[in-house]
Design brief:
With 333 residues, the chain is an alpha/beta fold. The protein contains 10 helices and 12 strands. The strands form 2 sheets. It has a 6-stranded parallel β-sheet with strand order 2-1-3-4-5-11, with helices on both faces. It is elongated, with a radius of gyration of 32 Å.
């Protein structure tokens, strides 16, 4: 009898001990899981995004706006691990230099620069490269080695415009050249390609030119002055370094009632307004200059991921005239 009582007591104690051990084990497991979750959470939250910083020289033109916005949109849609920031140099080299210095201080994984002018932006780009920050330049170049340059060839575009005008005028006529920003590589190359080619035609002459900063207002004022300076019959063609300035020239020419006199007006870049103007028979032609998007952020992302990229990526541009404009309507910038 006594033995049975001892056995029952032993069994009760064993059950109590088993329950306690189980509860302790469960609590320990929960605590361990909680600790694991806590240790994993900061790791996920602390994952640093790839910072791609873009310094744009100016946002006063649809081409420049599209270059920034389309690259940004592509990054947001396709690269969730990227933080994309951009600055506007406001068409002032000193402002863009300060922008680049600020972006360098943020230590981006890749710095994209579309320089306003070559001379001013070369030192800060060189500084970034010396610090080990990869640099991608878009459209315009700087006078130092960068990781990758993306853009079309501006010199051949000048050649193409000159050949088109020479053919339209049968190799004889006077030309007004509306240039872009002084010192910008695009301006220098578009001018040189044009002049080198026109020099082959002895009966063709550039009778006036002026830097108009790729902006409408100075281009319109310049054209108004030229219409005053050169009487009717002395201007046969207008060569503009971009579409915005070409459209401004057309406004001035229409206001002066001299559209019938000027046989050829050409622009560059590929704006929708330019395509519409060609369709209406006002602008004669434009040469599309790709606005380097999404290629800019695509190559920057490859560099950030450690992929090898070419030192230069050349984008192709088409000549748009009344013969082929229909396929470009609504597809410009």
């Amino acid at each position: 009898m006594k033995r049975n009582k001892l056995l029952k007591k032993f069994m009760v104690i064993s059950i109590i001990l088993a329950v306690c051990i189980s509860m302790v084990a469960c609590s320990s497991g929960q605590q361990s899981a909680k600790q694991q979750n806590q240790s994993a959470q900061p790791k996920e939250q602390g994952q640093k995004k790839i910072l791609i910083a873009f310094s744009q020289g100016t946002m006063n033109h649809p081409f420049r706006i599209a270059m920034v916005e389309r690259n940004k949109e592509y990054a947001e849609k396709n690269y969730p691990d990227v933080e994309f920031i951009a600055t506007d140099g406001q068409n002032t080299s000193s402002k863009q230099v300060a922008d680049v210095e600020d972006l360098i201080a943020k230590k981006p994984n890749v710095l994209i620069v579309s320089p306003l002018t070559e001379a001013a932006l070369t030192p800060p780009v060189q500084k970034a490269m010396d610090m080990g920050i990869p640099v991608v330049t878009l459209d315009r170049k700087v006078n130092t080695k960068v990781t990758c340059h993306i853009g079309a060839k501006n010199y051949p575009m000048g050649v193409k415009a000159a050949e088109f005008i020479a053919k339209a005028l049968n190799g004889k006529g006077n030309i007004i050249e509306i240039q872009g920003t002084a010192g910008a590589s695009a301006t220098v190359e578009r001018d040189k390609g044009f002049r080198d080619t026109i020099a082959k035609y002895p009966d063709m002459k550039i009778i006036a030119d002026q830097y108009c900063d790729y902006v409408r207002e100075p281009a319109m004022k310049f054209m108004e002055d030229m219409l005053q300076r050169f009487p009717k019959g002395q201007i046969q063609a207008i060569y503009s370094h971009n579409d915005a300035m070409a459209m401004a020239a057309i406004e001035a020419i229409k206001a002066a009632g001299r559209m019938d006199e000027i046989k050829v007006i050409t622009g560059m870049d590929g704006e929708n307004l330019a395509f519409d103007s060609i369709k209406k028979g006002e602008l004669t032609a434009t040469i599309i200059y790709p606005y380097c998007a999404p290629e800019g952020v695509q190559y920057a992302y490859k560099i950030a991921k450690g992929e090898k990229v070419p030192e230069e990526v050349v984008l192709e541009g088409d000549l748009v005239t009344k013969e082929n404009v229909d396929k470009y309507i609504g597809k410009g910038i």
